[in-house]
Design goal:
Blueprint lengths: L5 E4 L3 E7 L3 E7 L11 E2 L11 E7 L2 E7 L9 E7 L12 E5 L5 E6 L8 E10 L2 E11 L2 H7 L3 E4 L4 H8 L57 E4 L19 E6 L2 E5 L5 E9 L5 E5 L11 E3 L5 E8 L5 E6 L3 E7 L5 E2 L5 E4 L2 E5 L4 E7 L4 E8 L17 E4 L2 E7 L4 E8 L2 E7 L15 H12 L4
Parallel strand pairs: 12-13, 22-24
Antiparallel strand pairs: 1-11, 2-6, 2-8, 3-4, 3-7, 5-6, 7-10, 8-9, 10-11, 14-21, 15-20, 16-19, 16-21, 17-18, 17-20, 23-30, 24-29, 25-28, 25-30, 26-27, 26-29
Length: 465
């Protein structure tokens, strides 16, 4: 699968492999896109969900194995997120990052290879979700510029800079281990593995023959009362900012909901931003910015694609208040990101789905695009080299691509900094740079205002209470 693809799974207990060398967690979410409490986060410190629907088996040779017992998932739970994160470095440094699902007989039923990871340190790799009485697998590949803290916060988790004394004590305590450690199956003859009483029935899987150890414990999530949020201590770390010198850096704004709504994000720096939208529903999706008279502006999304995914280019007005009107027939999640959070173009192919905003910072190059959708592909360029006002973008000089249906296009790019805006792309596509030349001017080396980075870092990692 490529990013955005989905397909039905057999409704049986599955075994998943996450490669290579990342920390893995599973979040069990309700229809509201949130966990109900600490028990809905499965990670190394709490490796088994009480229902038996999710279980971390451990790591071997860089591969983390986990079981997803679809038949044991409680009725309230509609999605299982498979999350990968790193403690040091970025996900782009992980070789052959992927997630693969296996049926009980060892047959691969779904696989997603992440090809466009950037400076993020946390990512929703895939999700298993209910659809039409069954279950589907979706290749998500949604990275978070603010790391694991931003990812878990989006799903009902409250993040603190430091853990209270009780939580610190739990960190040092050994992780709970099931009464019988799971033992993987080995060829040629499948041998059963033992499960804790929470798992409804043992299932034979064919996995590597060596025993899979349970890794060292990490902090245990703690629910701070009747509110369905979870406090997870996350160590402070530097804000990862790509090599990009245009626009402000700010704490991403995130909102989730269901069906038609009006979203208001306040306190944002004026200027262009990236709006990341995901809708988990079939049918029409529309998104419009609202002006000060509450009238629709030019549409950002006008799509009949099921389960819409896309990154859109929007503009925050001078008052720092971005209002968006959304039409959707199901659960959705929207995030407002700084331009610096957009993916960087390189000579490595990136596989994506839907509209997007991409960055180019190098010298002249050719952009090769392969579009596999059936509708419009419209691409604009915004040259920023001589543009000094971060609250505006230079006017579009006309689209460099405006075609319908499957296409292979090569577009010459001027020197960066440059925004490549795929305004319409209702389908999968891939892109990479060719014939890249050195930049004629010295690189800015990142954001020009170091104070701005420091302020953004403080906002991102301040304890949320």
């Amino acid at each position: 699968m490529i990013k955005g693809d989905n397909g039905f799974l057999p409704t049986v207990p599955l075994r998943l492999a996450v490669r290579n060398g990342v920390d893995v967690a599973v979040l069990l979410l309700t229809e509201q896109g949130r966990v109900r409490g600490d028990h809905d986060i499965v990670f190394h410190g709490a490796p088994v969900h009480p229902s038996g629907a999710a279980r971390l088996l451990g790591e071997e040779s860089g591969t983390v194995w986990l079981d997803a017992g679809l038949t044991a998932v409680e009725g309230e739970i509609v999605r299982l997120l498979v999350v990968g994160s790193t403690e040091a470095g970025a996900l782009r440094d992980v070789d052959e990052l992927s997630v693969e699902a296996f049926a009980p007989d060892g047959t691969s039923v779904a696989r997603y290879d992440v090809t466009d990871a950037g400076g993020e340190t946390a990512m929703v790799l895939a999700e298993l979700y209910r659809r039409a009485g069954g279950w589907k697998f979706r290749a998500v590949g949604q990275g978070y510029v603010n790391g694991l803290a931003g990812l878990v916060t989006d799903h009902g988790v409250e993040v603190a800079d430091s853990a209270p004394a009780q939580a610190r004590a739990q960190v040092q305590a050994p992780a709970p281990v099931p009464p019988h450690a799971p033992v993987p199956f080995q060829p040629p003859g499948p041998a059963p593995f033992h499960a804790s009483p929470a798992v409804p029935a043992p299932v034979a899987f064919q996995t590597p023959a060596a025993p899979i150890p349970i890794p060292h414990p990490v902090p245990v999530a703690k629910v701070p009362g009747p509110v369905p949020t979870v406090v997870v201590p996350v160590p402070a770390q530097e804000l990862i900012v790509p090599d990009w010198a245009f626009g402000s850096v700010f704490e991403p704004y995130t909102q989730s909901g269901r069906d038609n709504d009006v979203i208001t994000a306040e306190g944002l720096p004026p200027g262009p931003v990236v709006v990341d939208l995901a809708v988990d529903a079939e049918g029409y999706t529309g998104l419009w910015p609202l002006n000060r008279f509450n009238k629709d502006g030019e549409s950002l999304v006008n799509s009949t694609e099921d389960n819409f995914r896309g990154r859109l280019l929007a503009h925050v007005p001078g008052n720092g208040r971005l209002r968006l009107r959304l039409r959707a027939d199901g659960p959705w999640r929207l995030q407002v990101l700084p331009l610096a959070a957009a993916r960087h173009l390189s000579e490595e192919p990136m596989e994506c789905f839907g509209p997007d905003v991409l960055l180019h910072t190098g010298g002249t190059a050719d952009l090769a695009i392969r579009y596999r959708g059936n509708d419009n592909l419209i691409v604009y360029l915004h040259e920023l080299a001589e543009h000094d006002d971060p609250t505006t973008l230079p006017e579009q000089q006309g689209s460099v691509v405006n075609e319908i249906g499957r296409r292979r296009e090569t577009v010459p790019l001027p020197e960066g900094p440059l925004l490549v805006h795929l305004k319409r792309a209702d389908g999968p596509w891939s892109a990479r740079l060719k014939h890249v030349q050195p930049h004629s001017r010295p690189s800015s080396g990142g954001l020009s205002n170091a104070t701005e980075i420091d302020k953004a870092q403080g906002r991102l990692w301040r304890g949320r209470r």
